[in-house]
Structure formats: structure tokens, C-alpha cells
Design brief:
- The protein has 4 helices and 5 strands; from the N terminus they run H-E-E-E-H-E-H-E-H.
- With about 120 residues, it is of the alpha/beta class.
- The strands form 2 sheets. Strands 4-1-5 form a 3-stranded parallel β-sheet.
- A hairpin with a 5-residue loop joins strand 2 (about 25) and strand 3 (about 30).
- The N and C termini lie far apart (about 45 Å).
Length: about 120
């Protein structure tokens, strides 16, 4: 695949808009951290880069169909996804958490404590 991209001279990147990671500025140009990562990768390969905006659920199927060479778009690595596509080392990580209003639910110490009728999750 790398040889094909280099011969072609263009890296085709599938992406979706996730502010501030990948989006368009007022002039319509793609900007954001993931856009910078893709541009740097293309520069390191000595090729141009072209972005293909794609709806998030369609990213993996479009990659498998050959619509682009790579996905750079907040795509989490999961065991199920690893069975469909090859994933690189992550360039970012994040942690999900729950914030609780202690005045409304003072006894919450774990996620299990939220399994009660008075715990409203939004």
C-alpha cells in the first residue's frame, strides 16, 4: 500500500468533522490536530494529501471499499474494529468519566451507585 501511495503521489484520507480535531475554517479549508497529523504523514512520505469527508458510521466500510487509504478521525481502537482494519499506535488517548452533583446524590462512590430510580443521567 505504501508503494502504491508513493507511486500515485497522493495520500487519500478519510475523515469526519470532530471539533476541534478536524473541521473546516471560515474559508472552507480543513484544519485541526488530525488534519495536521495527516498533512505531516503525507509530507514525511513526500506525497500530497487529499481529504474525503465521510459520515462517522461510514468510515470503516469506505476504507474497506478502497475509497481512501487511511482514516484519521477519532476512531477508537476496539477488538471488534481490529478484526476489520489495521490500527496504528494511538496518537491520543482520553478517559470517560461521570460527574455527579453531590447535593443531589451524596452517597455515590461508584457507577453501581447510580443504579437507582433517583439517579437521572443526561
Amino acid at each position: 500500500m505504501l508503494e502504491k501511495i508513493i507511486r500515485r503521489g497522493t495520500l487519500y484520507v478519510g475523515m469526519t468533522s470532530i471539533v476541534p480535531w478536524a473541521m473546516r475554517n471560515k474559508g472552507g479549508e480543513f484544519i485541526g490536530f488530525e488534519i495536521d497529523v495527516a498533512r505531516r504523514l503525507a509530507d514525511d512520505m513526500g506525497v500530497k494529501v487529499e481529504f474525503t469527508p465521510t459520515e462517522y458510521p461510514d468510515l470503516v466500510p469506505a476504507l474497506q471499499a478502497g475509497d481512501f487509504d487511511i482514516i484519521i478521525s477519532g476512531l477508537g481502537i476496539t477488538p471488534a474494529r481490529n478484526l476489520q482494519v489495521n490500527c496504528t499506535q494511538p496518537y491520543n488517548s482520553y478517559v470517560l468519566g461521570i460527574a455527579v452533583n453531590r447535593q443531589l446524590l451524596p452517597e455515590v462512590r461508584s457507577v453501581d451507585d447510580l443504579n437507582k430510580p433517583e439517579a437521572f443521567i443526561a
